[in-house]
Design goal:
Structural class: alpha/beta
Strand content: 15-25%
CATH class of the largest domain: Alpha Beta
Shape: globular
CATH superfamily of the largest domain: ATPase, nucleotide binding domain
Order of helices and strands: EEEHHEHEHEEEHHHHEHEH
CATH architecture of the largest domain: 2-Layer Sandwich
CATH topology of the largest domain: Nucleotidyltransferase, domain 5
Helix content: 40-55%
Radius of gyration: 20 Å
């Protein structure tokens, strides 16, 4: 089964053709990162306009790269939640219109389910159940994947997501946007032990995350140094911050492993590209004697191949959208977005 998938939840306009949920025949990404870097972050209205200008072009490019005609497509899928609502609507409406015009099924896909499904493309042998750490710009979650469309949230963030914290700290350190790779590069040159930063703990919820206090601590250190006329060691502070984030994520993942007895671990989302996190997860897997699935860097960020991979399993489960399928800015990974809110 060949699915043409569309992703437009933030600032990448992407399209891909995926076969049977496991093989990406194409994966085209049109990034707006240089545009939004001028503003220090994503401007929703600009992102939406960029998607409108690019979506048809990237869809055609995906078909060409896959050496497919429109008649070779069995279904069309698109991210329908969560994300910047104007941006999501562009891809969702394009996908619905294309499916209607081709007389093919339309498959709405949850963006975070898609991130998890990126692992199916990289590891054809991976099957549920497995435990996943989702770390991205908008989400930090511990998810037990019990089936391809059956998810249980074990823990989540109470405030900032890990990727969001990276972006904000990068801005304070003058590193630029996007923050994840900028902080990663700075941290490689710094002494993580030079600054002491707090570790968060959520009372009565040991698997939940909180990054707002850590972010505030970095901001305060930077402001105090500026007020006192002291030189701030940007590399060391970046390294200390990155270590604090990684330690927080891995500690909770280890706890979730012990609670669930999971023997297979996966990571998903843009923060999964972080070099320190990947190294820490490899150490964790070695210590615990479990299997580890880390998607390649090209499948960590937003892309349409991951949407096409998950769409295959949504199709098998009968989760199809009609022409009136809506898009949503928010939705839990456990929600059925085909029938969300009536």
């Amino acid at each position: 089964m060949r699915i043409l998938a569309i992703e437009s939840s933030c600032d990448e306009t992407a399209a891909a053709v995926v076969e049977d949920g496991r093989r990406a025949l194409s994966n085209i990404i049109d990034s707006q990162v240089e545009t939004h870097a001028l503003y220090g972050g994503v401007v929703p209205e600009i992102a939406s306009r960029g998607h409108m200008q690019a979506v048809a072009r990237v869809a055609e490019a995906a078909l060409r790269e896959a050496e497919c005609g429109r008649e070779d497509i069995d279904a069309v899928a698109a991210t329908c939640a969560p994300g910047l609502i104007g941006a999501v609507l562009v891809g969702a409406n394009f996908g619905k219109a294309l499916a209607l015009g081709l007389g093919k099924p339309f498959i709405p896909v949850h963006h975070i389910r898609g991130h998890i499904a990126a692992n199916y493309l990289a590891f054809p042998e991976l099957e549920p159940p497995f435990l996943t750490l989702v770390a991205s710009g908008g989400h930090s979650l511990l998810v037990m994947v019990r089936g391809y469309t059956d998810f249980e949230i074990l823990g989540g963030t109470r405030d900032d997501a890990a990727g969001e914290a990276f972006d904000k700290v990068a801005r304070v350190l003058g590193a630029g946007y996007p923050g994840g790779p900028k902080i990663d590069a700075l941290a490689r040159k710094g002494d993580a032990g030079k600054y002491t930063l707090p570790q968060s703990h959520v009372k009565d919820a040991p698997l939940d995350f909180s990054f707002s206090g850590l972010k505030t601590a970095v901001i305060n250190l930077a402001h105090h140094a500026e007020q006192k006329g002291e030189t701030l060691d940007r590399e060391a502070l970046a390294a200390a911050f990155q270590r604090a984030v990684v330690d927080t994520l891995v500690l909770r993942l280890r706890l979730a492993m012990h609670e669930t007895g999971a023997k297979k671990l996966a990571c998903a989302g843009g923060v999964a590209a972080n070099s320190a996190l990947r190294a820490a997860l490899e150490n964790l897997a070695g210590e615990e004697g479990c299997g580890l699935y880390l998607p390649p860097l090209g499948l960590c960020g937003d892309n349409a191949a991951m949407i096409g991979a998950q769409a295959f399993y949504e199709y098998q489960a009968g989760n199809l959208g009609a022409s009136g399928q809506n898009a949503y800015a928010t939705a839990e990974i456990t929600e059925d977005i085909c029938r969300k809110r009536g």
